[in-house]
């Protein structure tokens, strides 16, 4: 694993060169918030990093119900008594194995690996605009119906989950990058993903952290450019 720190946010990257899967430890004054758990085998690296920081993990937020973002939750819940597990409200159906859509969500099938066999149940369901410590929860559907990004208002660091990718080249979810096509392959609704990307870009983050790929500093202009590219791609597909 590789650890990269930007201010109060620590990126833990599993297999950073080959197939990066990122998790984030966000420092509060007395404790830590973990954003995403990676795959099952990532839990030891997360616990080790928290021990090196010297603060306890008090809460775990999962951005969306895909296995590479949620696979370590059971091991972490066992290892950290009393830790709070937060999940976006709309993702609960996926968490429970229900891929059916709700009114207004269209007819596209939900894609990607939905966690199976996990025993943990969320303690709290996140809604758009909720605050968790220094993090603002922002609804950003597209990759999945209930995808949620987190914005650290202190440092303007945006933890975008899979709303964007950086590995293979910066891209909006659903816009395929040949050298790393997997986030696009797992994206439910490209049009909604573009709208969410615009919403997140409007926050004007100073740092962008995603589920797959390195931190990106001063990302706003690059985010705008890949949104325009995504719109062109969508028009060609239509």
Question: What does this 3D model show about the protein?
Answer:
It is globular, with a radius of gyration of 16 Å. The protein has a single domain, classed as Ribonuclease Z/Hydroxyacylglutathione hydrolase-like (Metallo-beta-lactamase, Chain A, 4-Layer Sandwich), CATH 3.60.15. The protein contains seven helices and 15 strands. The mean pLDDT is 97. It is an alpha/beta fold and 238 residues long. The longest helix has 18 residues, at 220-237. Strand 4, helix 1 and strand 5 form a beta-alpha-beta unit.
Write a concise synopsis of the structure shown:
The mean pLDDT is 97.
Helix and strand topology:
Blueprint lengths: L1 E5 L2 E6 L6 E7 L4 E4 L7 H11 L3 E5 L5 H4 L2 H7 L4 E5 L3 H4 L28 E3 L4 E2 L2 E5 L8 E5 L4 E3 L4 E2 L5 E2 L9 H4 L4 H12 L5 E3 L6 E2 L2 H18 L1
Parallel strand pairs: 4-5, 5-6, 6-7, 11-14
Antiparallel strand pairs: 1-2, 2-3, 3-4, 8-9, 9-10, 10-11, 12-13, 14-15
Helix pairs in contact: 6-7
């Amino acid at each position: 694993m590789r650890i990269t720190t930007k201010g109060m946010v620590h990126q833990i990257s599993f297999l950073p060169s080959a197939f990066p899967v990122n998790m984030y430890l966000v420092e509060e004054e007395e404790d830590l918030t973990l954003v995403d758990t990676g795959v099952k085998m990532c839990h030891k690296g997360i616990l080790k990093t928290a021990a090196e920081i010297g603060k306890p993990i008090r809460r775990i937020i999962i951005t969306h119900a895909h296995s590479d973002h949620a696979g370590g939750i059971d091991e972490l819940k066992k290892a950290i008594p009393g830790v709070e597990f937060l999940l976006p409200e709309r993702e609960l159906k996926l968490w429970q194995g229900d891929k059916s859509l709700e009114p207004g969500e269209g007819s596209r099938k939900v894609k990607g690996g939905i966690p199976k066999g996990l025993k943990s149940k969320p303690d709290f369901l996140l809604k758009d605009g909720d605050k968790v410590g220094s993090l603002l929860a922002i609804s950003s559907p597209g990759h999945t119906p209930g995808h949620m990004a987190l914005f650290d208002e202190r440092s303007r660091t945006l933890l975008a989950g899979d709303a964007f990718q950086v590995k293979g080249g910066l891209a909006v979810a659903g816009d395929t990058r040949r050298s790393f096509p997997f986030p696009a392959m797992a994206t439910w609704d490209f049009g909604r993903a573009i709208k969410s990307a615009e919403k997140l870009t409007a926050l004007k983050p100073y740092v962008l952290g995603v589920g797959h790929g390195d931190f990106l500093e001063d990302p706003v202009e690059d985010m705008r450019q890949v949104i325009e590219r995504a719109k062109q791609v969508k028009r060609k597909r239509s």
